[in-house]
Amino acid sequence: MLEVTCLSAWYGEAQVLTDVSLAVHEGEVATLVGRNGAGKTTLLRCVMGLHRSLEGQLRLDERDLDRLSPNARARAGIGWVPDDRGIYASLTVEENLTLPPVVSADRAWPVEQIYEAFPALADRRASMGTQLSGGEQQMLAMARVLRMGSSLLLLDEPSEGLAPVIVQRIGEIIRQITDHGVGVLLVEQNVTFAATVADRHYLLAQGRVVEQLDNAQFQAREHELLEHLGI
Amino acid sequence: MSAFIQYTLQGLAAGGFYALAALGLAVIFGVLGVVNFAHGACYMLGAVVSAVLLDVVGLHFWPALVIVPILMFLFGVLLERVFVQWLLRLDVLYNFLLTFGIALVLVDLVKRRYGVSGLPYEQPAGLRGQLHLGSLSLPTYQVFVFAFSMLVCVLVWLLLTRTRIGMIVRASTEEPERTRALGINVNRWVTPVFGFGIGLAGLAGVLAAPFRAITADMGGNFVIILFAVVVIGGLGSVLGAVVAGFLVGLVEAYGQAYASSFSQIAIFVLMALVILVRPAGLFGRQETA
Ligand SMILES: Nc1ncnc2c1ncn2[C@@H]1O[C@H](COP(=O)(O)OP(=O)(O)O)[C@@H](O)[C@H]1O
Ligand SMILES: [Mg+2]
Q1: Distance from the CA of B247 to the CA of which of A29, A185, B133, B235 falls in 20 to 30 A?
Q2: Which CATH number fits domain A2-229: 3.40.50.300, 1.10.600.10, 2.60.40.1180, 2.60.40.1230?
């Protein structure tokens, strides 16, 4: 569903992505693994239309994304969970959840289902967004794209700084939605977590895809990769 | 004691003008990222249009209170479509040049047409004279201005906190880019929000018409104090705009009463103190400082 072809991106003069090509298919989890500064977040921002200094092709379901504004891309089915969670301080938990439009009625989780899946959010629905703990904010950011019914999720390090139980919970949810045909592009530094949820992996180093592995190969080389990533 | 209460009321009435206008400035800055230096001129225009409508078509205060803000809203929509929209892509320096330029043009146009001596406006029926509360007697019009501007502030507050439009305005004030990435067409709200902010400045102008001298220059001093209000409250903070508006009105009134040569200075001393203690203003988010 998502096809990135020969993507290069710059911050001013500095090139941070070089000829990156990758694809995410329906019902599949692909990870983007790489050190800090490799260009993972920049790639997601390019897909979202927030980073404009780029060359190459971005397509969603055979459709060119180039001319679509960020809000049109979100409406076309791309759901973004940014690395800083992106929870609004001036909105309540429930407002944070219901701010974005529902983009696909079949796929969208109703608010009740969200609260069933994340009881912690139900209890705090009237609190302001940033009064939540880091873990709760991460859940809220996930819950927000589930309620939109996005067909492609871009998750930027969703496990970072979370307790193992919550990471496990997020893994379960990722598997649950991919069973319904959602595609996920997961940026992760937590190699162990990546290996438990993903089908395929792209290794990104200094803005280039240096290797593409299926999950079996990835697991076999977990230790080597950990060293490579310097984690 | 009764003198003190009268000064307080005077301050709260003047604070009502500041609060309404600063509220408009805050929502415009929040959603557009534009600091509108023409805000004082729009306040002036609200008062002048009220006076002209009274003179030419006999439109009285009460209907003017509704019609003039609507006219100013439309004027704001026009300004945004013709001029301000181009700012969003330009360096902030142009923001100052354009909106300040608009202010100068508006002031000079009014001067050319209506001179500098001031337009007459009578106190509206029902709001003349004094209100007697026990041994106190207070100017009815000032009581009205305070109560009415409070009411409008509360209504705007409800609009911002209880409606979907308000939610989108708050979200795009906080994080415009991210809000777009969540599928919200922020641009669609830019024009109405600008019009709304100008409408609020116009409303403050209508309220000022029976109370202040209506001249082309009435917005000049007003806008300077308005920026003190916004800095004290926190740029972009709606609650801050309202609280600081009334606070500055009070400081100004007490200053005029007890130390008349220092009344303006007192406002800027307050501003300096606030900046020293909380650089982002009383209600501003610290990281935006
Ligand atoms: N706003 C920016 N301005 C300039 N350089 C940036 C900016 N954001 C990121 N970079 C640089 O781009 C490179 C890739 O960053 P990023 O995409 O955030 O990497 P990752 O998410 O893999 O850690 C890094 O070298 C970083 O320093
Ligand atoms: Mg990153």
Answers
A1: B133
A2: 3.40.50.300
Question: Residue of the nearest CA to atom 13 in ligand 1?
Answer: A37
Can you give the residue range of the structural domain that contains B72?
14-216
In three-state secondary structure terms, B230 is helix
- For residue B122, what is the DSSP state? P
Determine, yes or no, domain membership for B175. yes
Q: Which parts of chain B fold into alpha helices (H)?
A: 2-32, 39-57, 61-82, 92-114, 140-162, 164-174, 176-181, 187-208, 218-233, 238-258, 263-277
Structurally, how many domains does chain B consist of? 1
ipTM for this prediction: 0.90
Q: Nearest CB to A88: which of B175, B183, B186?
A: B175
Q: What residues of chain A lie within 8 A of the CB of B180, using their CB? A: 50, 69-71, 74
Q: Is the Cβ–Cβ distance between A21 and A6 less than 8 Å?
A: yes
Identify whether the C-beta of residue B238 lies closer than 8 Å to the C-beta of residue B197.
no
Domain boundaries, chain A: 2-229
Q: B95 lies in a domain? A: yes
- Asked which of A205-219, B46-60, B100-114, B126-140 is least confident by mean pLDDT, the reply is B126-140
Give me the sign of the Cα torsion angle A46, A49, A167, A173.
Answer: negative
Low-confidence ranges of chain A (pLDDT < 50): none
Strand order, beta sheet including A2-11: A14-24, A2-11, A54-60, A63-64
The model's pTM: 0.86
Q: Which residues of B touch A51 (CB under 8 A)?
A: none
Give the count of beta carbons closer than 10 Å to the beta carbon of residue A214. 11
Residue type, A80: W
**Half-sphere exposure (CA, 13 Å, Cβ side) for B227?**
11
pLDDT of residue A230: 65
Q: What are the distances in angstroms from CA B268 to CA A99, A101, B275? A: 39, 44, 10
Q: What is the strand order of the sheet A208-214 is part of? A: A78-81, A152-156, A183-188, A29-33, A200-205, A208-214
CB contact under 8 A, B181 and A50: yes
- Residue B270 located in a structural domain: no
Contact B255, B249 (CB under 8 A): no
Q: Are A126 and B161 in contact (CB under 8 A)?
A: no
Task: Dihedral sign for Cα B209, B215, B218, B219, please.
Answer: positive
Mutate to test the pocket of ligand 1, among A8, A32, A33, A42 (most ligand atoms within 8 A of CB): A42
State yes or no: pLDDT of B89 exceeds 90: no
Q: What is the pLDDT of residue B91?
A: 86
Distances (CA, A) of B8 to B59, B146, B226: 31, 11, 19
